Amino acid sequence: MKKVLAIALLAAILSPSSLQACSCFGNNSYCETLSPGWFVNPDATALVVKLADYHYGITVKVVQTFGGTTLPNDTLTVWGDNGALCRIYVNGIAVGDTMVFGLNETDFTGNTIWNSQYPPNLEMPGDYMVSVCGVYALNYNNGMVNGWITAPAVQSMTLQDFDALVSGCTIGVGVEEEEASDPLLVKYDGGVPVLELTGDNTTAELRVFDARGQVALSRSGMRGPCRLNTLAVGSYLVDLRRDGKRWARKLVVLE
Question: Could you tell me which CATH class the domain 30-170 is placed in?
Answer without folding.
Answer: mainly beta
